[in-house]
Amino acid sequence: MYDDKEYLLGLAAKSDNAEPAEKVNEFPLQEEENKKASGNTDETSENDREDEDEDDSSEYVPMTDSEYDTDEIPDSDEQLEEPEVNENEVPNSSHDRSAIKENNTSQNSTLNSSANRTSIGCDDAHLNVDPSNGSKGAGKLYYCIFCGKKQTKFARHLLRVHSDETEVKKFSYLPAKNPERLKFITMLRNKGSLVHNKDITINNGKLFVCRRPQAKMKKAGKDFVPCSKCKGFYAKSNIRHHYQRCANPKSGNTRTILIEGRKLVKRNHPEASFKMSNRILPVLRDDTEGHIARYDRLIVLFGNKLSRKYQHPHQDKMIRSQLRLLARFVIALKDLDPEITDLQSLYNPKFYDTALKAVNKVAKFRDEDGTYETPAPAAALGTCLKKIGAILKSDCIKRLDAEKKQLTIDFLNLLEEDYGCSVNKTVIETQSQQKRQKKVVLPKKDDIALLQIYLKRQREIARELLEVKVTRDAWMSLAEATLITTQVFNRRRAGEIERITIEDFKNYVRLNKDTNKDLFESLCASDKEYAERYVRFFIRGKLDRTVPVILDVELLQDFNTILAERSNVGVNDKNPFVFGTSSDKKAHKHLDACKLMREFSSKCGAEDAEALRGTKLRKHMATEYATMNISKNTLENLCEHMGHHEKIHKTIYRQPIPSRELIDISKMLEHAQARSSHHQNDNFCDENESDHDMTKGNAADDSDNIENINNLDDFNDDTDQSLCRKRKTEDHGYLANRRSSRH
């Protein structure tokens, strides 16, 4: 075998034509590649072949059913620092080129201009993977990031042609089979494969992978994803095995690994924004709906607009749900009319009826009763079509496409005129019917008390454990119990409580003689006790409302303990949430209040644990105070605290009160029935007087009664009795007229 120094010194004496150059855009067929590769192998000396095989030594990765061949290179060693590479750009060659570059200036300039081109997102559904040829590495090609050529003997090519490159110099003097040498070669291979696989102008429909599949497995490009650590492409079904060796994660799952790989390769439409490419689209599942959401231009433009409008990370799920809904809609359109190829082609007046049929198909319209099984998607699609039509119209103006602009306007006119009658009316009726038939069981006071007692006990145990020793389990237990206690006490939405930020919490205020002496002194003794017991701070609520959160002294102490010990349990200091749990610098995760509410409600011993949910607790609050005849100002304060409008409070959260219909209204109905049957008695005035007093008390608190009855304070007993006598006189006159008419 050649000594490495002697081998390098002999490079200058070799002819430039020893290794024929291959143009990127004139890539031969696979059969010709195999013949050419085998021919080069015969001309290569035995020592060169042995050295090349040592560079191509494979790494053991657990496989199943001998699915792939063994032409993989060992992954890089984490102890050695790898030079960072921007995967969106192809590295340029150094200015000091060897004689080979001087003799091929024109050819290399063409290749470099193609390789340095910004990566274009290509559809992996159209990429193919060459199967294994049986023997190790036979005919396998690699892409060189320095010259843009595809090579079979990659390590030898680097040493002969690019020996002056910094990355090549790092391993050029290392002996064969050296782990560091293999590491740098693998790094350059994977970087080249990443550049090749991302640019459709280079790959020509071929995907370069680390382990080629056997022909019988029938793997395609969509079945492979890059490793976010080493940039090598591996099968989705097997990448978790490689990732455990490559990144050595203590925890992780296949879904997270696939998401990180999709972020790296960016398989989506090239017009997708940075947020869409890195936060929204990679999380979508690799199914038909996800594929359409990634590559349909109009859906991507709509997603870009939603991404700019909704910046908070927790709103990403909402954006993805709308994209998947539109993807299902496009699938239905294609099934109904083959002329519709994408969402943009729908905006033509002749396809309006097809659009209505697709909406009915997505929302599962039932012809037998004329209702929707799932009415919400039908209403959402109407809104989305209007917004997307406005985006398409603006895009046509920018592209000076007057014809498509006019077709879009005509389609939107039909949508505006007809959609409300054809779809929205049925949606409203279906939702009203479902609401009437839905049985809402509110939580019982005893169950709420059991939950609060259980949570208080959990907090006490966690505090005792933290006093002995600070552990992550004890800290998590305190944070979980504190989160749900705060939600139950304040009747806040789950998302609002779990996303309390540290900055908002630190702005809490008290009411005492030190903060506001004049106001505090004006309070009575009981109010002063309440004021000293609680603190208040404001957080972001739904629709960017500012809503308050109230804490007692014990909860305030638990909040301070959670913040004081978070750094000792591995929570990143940059995590902005009070209940943050992640140590990741990029993804700021926090506790899930909905999940914890289900867990604690089942453990507290409640009789009806299913009723202990965040929304039902809010409905319980609204319904409970509807029976207490609170004043209008108090009702407004309650709605402001809960973070919704008074109309929403009455129509959505407040549930029907049985006592009103079964007692109050039934009395009125019986009284009206008695009058119509003309069975009056002397007790009518007393009954009406008691009913009027009851109505007077309720009307002061119920806005509906306030609108119907004005100046209730002017009514007195004398006025009420005079009304009774007047009604008796009218009744007697009515009976006298009836008798006279009969005669």
Structural commentary:
The chain folds into 4 domains: 27-77 and 98-267, no CATH class; 279-437, no CATH class; 445-653, hpI Integrase, Chain A; 678-742, no CATH class. 56% of the residues lie in helices and 4% in strands. It is mainly alpha-helical and 743 residues long. The strands form 4 sheets. The protein has a two-stranded antiparallel ribbon. A two-stranded antiparallel sheet has the order 3-4. Strands 5-6 form a two-stranded antiparallel sheet. The protein has 33 helices and 8 strands.
- Could you describe the largest sheet, including whether it forms a barrel? 2 strands, antiparallel
- Percent helix, as a range, is 55-70%
SS content category: mainly alpha
Rg, Å, rounded: 37 Å
Strand content: under 5%
Which stretches of 5+ consecutive residues score pLDDT under 50? Answer: 1-120, 678-720
Total count of helical runs of at least 4 residues: 33
Question: How many domains comprise the coordinates?
Answer: 4
Shape: globular
Give average pLDDT, whole number: 78
Q: N-to-C terminal Cα separation, in Å? A: 136 Å
- In the sheet with the most strands, the strands line up as 1-2
Q: What is the total tally of β strands?
A: 8
Brief summary of the model shown:
With about 750 residues, this protein is mostly helical.
Question: What's the SSE blueprint?
Answer:
Layout lengths: L3 H6 L20 H14 L2 H10 L43 H5 L1 H11 L26 E2 L6 E2 L2 H8 L4 H7 L6 H20 L1 H4 L20 E3 L6 E3 L3 H8 L7 H12 L8 H7 L7 H8 L1 H13 L6 H21 L15 H11 L2 E2 L4 E2 L2 H25 L2 H36 L7 H24 L3 H19 L3 H5 L3 H5 L10 H5 L3 H9 E7 L5 E7 H13 L27 H11 L10 H13 L5 H11 L3 H8 L4 H19 L7 H16 L3 H6 L8 H26 L1
Antiparallel strand pairs: 1-2, 3-4, 5-6, 7-8
